[in-house]
Amino acid sequence: MKKQIRKKITPRRESAAQTTAAWQENFVRYLRTECHLATNTVDAYERDMARFFSWLDKRRLQQMSVSELAGYSGWLAEESLAPASISRHLASLKVFFRFLQLEGVLKDNQAELLTSQKLWQRIPQVLSAGEVDELLTAPKPFDGLWRRDRALLEMLYATGCRVSELANLKLRDLHLKDRYSQCRGKGDKQRITPLGMSAIEAVEKYIAEEREALAAKKSPPEPYLFLSSRGRRLRRERIWELLKRYAARVGAPEEISPHSLRHSFATHLLAGGADLRQVQEMLGHASIATTQIYTHVDHTRLKSVHETFHPRA
Known about the structure:
Elements: H1 16-33, H2 39-56, H3 66-78, H4 83-102, H5 129-136, H6 146-159, H7 163-167, E1 174-175, E2 180-184, E3 190-194, H8 197-215, H9 236-249, H10 258-271, H11 276-283, H12 288-291, H13 299-309
Antiparallel strand pairs: 1-2, 2-3
């Protein structure tokens, strides 16, 4: 098997803008072909680098010291970015500098010396079981594709899938008789997501009464489970829009997003007594530390325990 040889950036007499564009283009290619990162991750790195070069302006990157680079995180804070976003931008910068080292553009990686500001653990937005019920039944017969939308919401909550994972779910990934689906997560890792009867019934009705007509609008038909009114794969941005519409209809908080159903899925499982490791596997978390945040969310159970057992409750 031939070893892939990366074409290095050769120094030429170019304008600063041309050099910057070449670095960014080669960096994106490196992330895709050698690091094999997911498309969404590559897009995020690309956006982060565009922001970095906006801050860098006419300064020479090769001459930047760590104290000067520290000004970048300060600038990000002034741009009102959250601590988690700032931390991700700095992580992107470190990877980019390592890439420039591989290319021979830089001798030292000054970005490695940057430290992220302390990240306060943020408890995610979680819906109560009653609020989830209201949201999942928000699509009504007067809505254009209400069976699709109801199946979509049911699947988000039943599986705990990320919105991008659900958008890419294919018919062949469904095993309704055996009550599970196969989900492809970050890094194309596959996992099993069990399905409850409510989600199965909603999906079956959508497939039987709406999906066939949608699939017929495109030739050849798309293999994806959720289709748009034109028969194409339903984009994740559209899923966001649909959830926001139905959340507003039932009076859910404005900050509710598809990820809120993922958070609610995990929190409700743990509140019901599910094992943390099992929830980690269903969510597709690489580290159990990521899953542990949900053990701090169930305030109602803590309040009940306090009222029952504390002598001065």
